[in-house]
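Weekly structure sync, notes
Attendees: PL (lead), two postdocs, one rotation student
Agenda item 3: pending single-chain targets
PL asked that the sequence for the first pending target be pasted directly into the notes so everyone works from the same version. It is reproduced below exactly as submitted, 489 residues in total.
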Amino acid sequence: MKNIPTVKLGLISVSRDCFPIELSATRRGAVAKAFGDIYECKVTVENEMDMLKAVEDVKKAGVNALVVFLGNFGPETPETLIAQKFDGPVMYVAAAEDAADKLIDGRGDAYCGMLNCSYNLGLRNIKAFIPSYPVGDAEDIAKMIADFVPMARALLGLQNLKIITFGPRPNDFLACNAPIKKLFDLGVEVQENSELDLLVAYKAHKDDPRIPEVVADMASELGEGNKMSGILPRLAQFEITLLDWAEQTKGSREYVAFANKCWPAFQTEFGIVPCYVNSRLTARGIPVACEVDIYGALSEYIGTCVTGEAVTLLDINNSVPKDMFETEIKGNYDYTLQDTFMGFHCGNTPICRLKKGEMKFQRIMKRSLEPDTEPDITRGTLEGDINPGEITFYRLQGTADGGLKSYIAHGEVLPVATQSFGGIGVFAIKEMGRFYRNVLIQDCYPHHGAVAFGHVGKTLFDIFTYLGVPKISYNQPKSVPYPTENPFA
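Predicted structure, written out during the meeting:
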C-alpha cells in the first residue's frame, strides 16, 4: 500500500547524571539488538544540550517515530523536552533491573524515574505514548516497540492526510454529519467539493486512453464474478477520475481518503453505482466511504494504517433471523441471538475480503430507478459473503458539539451463509445486544462502522487515547454494567 506511511524508528536513551551513563547506554544497545530495525542514537541524554544533539541526530537519520528509553532514572526535564522538540509520535519506556547481584552499583531505578517523567510530561502538556506497563528488559521493550509501530503509522498518516469529499449528503442522512473543527484539531485536512465538480471531472475523462487498461484489470480481478462486463468502461472512467483528482489536489498532503456521494442522483447522472470502484481504491489503501461519511473515511484510514491491509465500512444493518440462528449458529458457536447481527453495504467491500465477489446491481436503487427494465445505471456493486474470521468493529466520531467519541469491539464473521445480497456477513460480538443499546443508541452513533480484519482493539485504544478522545466505549461483559443500563431489565 502506497497511501500509508513507512515508519522509521529511532531510539534515544536518557541518564540521570548521578547514575552511571554506561548503564543507560549498555541497556540501550541491548534494546536495539533485541528489536533489530531501529536507528540507535549514540547520544545519551543527561542535559538539555544533549537533548538538542540527540534530536538533531535522529532527524538527520530520517527518523519519524521515536522511542525514548529510560536506561536509568533519567533527567526529568531534558527527557520530556525530547518529545517537545521531535516532530512525530514518541513512546516512553523504562528499563527493568538486570539481576539480583547488580542491585548496588548496577541499579537504575527507571521504575521510579518513569513516574517523574510522566508527571513532567503532564506539567508541560506534552503528548506522548506510555504503554500499559512500560517497564521491562530488552526483549520486553522490543515487544512494546513492535506494538508501537502500527500506532505510529496511523498517527503519522493522520498528520499528512487529506479527506476529499463530494457531497452533499443524501437527504435524511444526518447520521453522516461531520463537524470539521475536530478534524483540523487531529491534523487532518478536508477538501469539500460539490457532486457537480465530480460530474464535470468525470465527463472530462470520457474516452480517456487509460480506460481499456483499467477495464482489463477489473475483468482480471473479477474473474468468473464479471457478470456485468458492460458497465466496466464507465466504472473505469470513474476510477481514473478519482485517482486523478487525488493526485492533482492533495497539495501539501501525502495521503488521501475519500467520502463520496453515491446516491440517489448519482445513478441518473453518472450512469453507475460506484461501489466496485470504492472497493478497489480501499484495497489499495485509499478508503472511499459511502454517503459522504467523513468520519467513516477517517476511521477506515486509521484501520488501514494499523493493519497495513484492506478494511471496509459497513452498516450495522439487520438482525439475524431466529430460524437462521437456530439452525446455523446455536450449538455451533458460543453466542446468543442478540450477540449476532448482519453487517452490510451495497458493494464496497474489497474483493479480497469476500468469499466469492461478483459484479451485480443495487437492488434497493433499482426498485425506484429501473423498476421495469433490465439493470443499467444501477449496476456496479461488488457482492458476496464476507470471509469468516476475526474482526474489530470500531469508529472514531465527531460530535455535534465539537467533541470526539469512539467505540471498539472485537468479534468475528461467522462462516454462515447470509442468504442475502450486497457485501454482507453474519457478525458476532459478545454482548452485542447491550452494546447496541447502551453505546450505539445511547451515545447517538451513526449506522456506519469501520471493520478491520483482525483483533486490533489494543492498538486502536492506544491511538484514540493518544489523540485525546475522552470517551472510548467497548462491549462490556455482563459483570460490568453500563452507566445507562437498567439494572432491573
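Discussion points:
- The CA atoms of residues 205 and 390 lie 40 Å apart.
- The first strand starts at residue 9 and ends at 14.
Action: rotation student to compare against the earlier draft before next sync.
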